[in-house]
Design brief:
340 residues, 16 helices
């Protein structure tokens, strides 16, 4: 045991300046958003990702920080994903108001997932990138991409591209719904449902709905939480799909990765209402910090020349994915309002 802790201390000491860089950039990203310097639709993980990409492409030698950056983009990412579970409480399903509403949310998410995978396959883009887009667009944007990344086999360039598409089209969604509200006389609750069911990242949902009304924001966030709750079954489904794809002559791992078990346990504990709001707020702050640090680590491995090599196909698939989720969410919202 003493040898184990000595090895950890030795690694930390040898990589102290790299860890300091990761922590420093993560704090910087949070402060940039807190001070309102950038658009409200952005989040600390996106800022950290951009910082990583910038530092990786200006020609500076960052080999001294590579172990710390790799640690951030792998281990810290998995811990951050597990902590996302504390954000979820299964009682939030009751706030959706009807069984038909719950079924619509489930249908839109899973139909979108399989459609986007099919579109990506037809467009001949890589399976890992397709999987990131299929999870990110229908569920919860960057958090879903972060959760699926360890299962997907995607490299840093593919992950960065997926995060970029979520950010771009999520920002377009904010503008789209603002214009839609000005042109058409759509009931606030209906618009909130459509926003909550279609806009990708949580911060983008807040920005889009807040620009319309408080009632739209309330409806949008309830529906968005319903989508986020589907992250756990989605991760389990992807994990089993990956295991089933392994040939019989290859060694199969335990079908559920440890970080997903941690995610489900955290969600169960959060739903049990055994923790104070202050504790959960602290966990949320730690979770945001870890995912922000992970995104900086991912960004530092992205070379713009490599992204250019991916071509324009992923951008076109991202646009089709955005339209797909938008249309399915619109139909789902209409059905929910009519039935409910």
């Amino acid at each position: 045991m003493r040898l184990f802790f000595y090895d950890i201390w030795k690694w930390v000491r040898n990589n102290f300046y790299g860890l300091l860089l990761v922590v420093g950039v993560s704090i910087f990203a949070k402060q940039v958003i807190r001070l309102g310097i950038l658009n409200d639709s952005l989040s600390p993980p996106v800022v950290a990702l951009l910082c990583g990409i910038f530092l990786a492409n200006i020609g500076l030698d960052s080999s001294w920080a590579k172990p710390s950056l790799s640690f951030a983009s792998s281990q810290l990412l998995k811990i951050g994903v597990a902590l996302i579970g504390f954000r979820l409480t299964f009682s939030e399903i009751l706030e959706i108001g009807s069984l038909s509403g719950v079924l619509v949310i489930i249908s839109v998410v899973f139909i979108s997932f399989f459609l986007i995978r099919w579109i990506g396959e037809k467009a001949s883009i890589s399976k890992p990138l397709t999987l990131l887009l299929a999870a990110g667009f229908p569920i919860c944007g960057i958090s879903a991409i972060a959760a699926v990344k360890p299962l997907s086999g995607a490299d840093d360039e593919e992950t960065g591209y997926a995060v970029g598409l979520i950010t771009i089209f999520g920002s377009i969604s904010i503008l789209f719904f603002s214009i839609l509200h000005l042109i058409f006389d759509i009931e606030m609750n209906t618009l909130g449902w459509w926003i909550g069911l279609s806009v990708h990242d949580t911060s983008q949902v807040v920005a889009a709905a807040s620009a319309i009304s408080e009632s739209s924001l309330d409806s949008a966030m309830v529906v968005k939480m319903g989508r986020i709750l589907l992250l756990a079954p989605m991760l389990l489904m992807i994990s089993f799909m990956k295991q089933r794809g392994i040939r019989s002559d290859q060694q199969k791992r335990f079908p559920i990765p440890i970080f997903i078990i941690g995610f489900v346990v955290a969600a169960a504990m959060g739903s049990a209402n055994i923790f104070s709001k202050g504790f959960l707020d602290s966990i949320d702050a730690v979770r945001t910090f870890l995912i922000t640090a992970a995104m900086f680590g991912l960004g530092s491995g992205i070379r713009l020349r490599s992204i250019k090599d991916l071509g324009g196909k992923p951008l076109r698939v991202g646009f089709i994915a955005w339209i797909t989720v938008l249309v399915l969410a619109g139909v789902g919202t209409f059905l929910t309002i009519q039935i409910g």
